[in-house]
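Justification of computing resources. Each target in the renewal requires a structure prediction run like the one illustrated here; the chain below, 328 residues long, is used simply to show the kind of job we budget for.
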Amino acid sequence: MKIKSIILYICIILVVLAGILFGAYRYFFGGLTQDKAFAEIAANQADRLAVNDETDLENANIVNIAIFGIDSQDSDKGRSDATMILSVDYEHNKIKLSSIARDTLVYIPDKDVTEKFTHAYAYGGAQLAVKTLNTNFNTNITDYVAVNFSEMAEIIDLVGGVEVDLTEAEREQLPDNDSLSVGENITLNGKQAVFYSRIRKIDNDNARTSRQREIMACLFRKARDMSATQYPTLIRECLSLCTTSLDYTEILSFSQILLQKDLKLEQFALPGDSVDAWGGIMSSSGAWCYVYDLREASDALLTFIYESIYTNSDIELPPATVDRSAVN
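Resulting structure tokens:
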């Protein structure tokens, strides 16, 4: 009888623990919108993402994730108004952010057209946008996160806004700007930060992507400075606002690097100063675009992400998918 009571007691404890774990899972990850179809393609049909074994550096302890900011209320549709590659670099203990200008002229596979990169997401969602990245920049990305800009404002408000260096010309482009001053470390709320990241009229696409990286860098710093008791709410709320190919175990694994005390954050942009770029009019549509040698751009991007792992490799990049002859 005593043995039966002990067994019953153990079973009750196990049931309670299982309930607690399930409740914790639902609390943290119940709002996660995982793109399981994309994850299935990445796992079993990598050719549909243009993953190229000849330029693969998968043995490097570096994970690359595409981040798309979508100008639509639906993260499955719309153009990618902001595109970055988030590199979680365990090899060098770094987080790296690489921007690709939205107006970069690229070859869009499946559609078999040469157009602005921003159109790839509208044509085929995350799958075609990632395939376009891999095709043109010789990356081998198999994961992504997408967030529309209205949701991005909510994420920024969750951390209490972001601090940026604000000029008068930028201030004039922002909503509710009467109380804003200009200078360093000016706090913007979510709505203002989204407008800030999308400013186009006062300068160029390089400045625009720089502002976008500035916002992302501030978000990373804010997340690192938060106390452990604040993380549950942040994780739960942020995951509910994103669509991603990652599952919860992968997200937890990647987040561990934020706890490293000597973690560095580095930034890079294309075209930036790495390659010669020209603005021109596409012959096919008459639209303005950025044109640069995408083989040179690939070389600069891979050097930034992988450092000596790439430069010491024997990888031979294929010819550029786009060159200056594509514009008038």
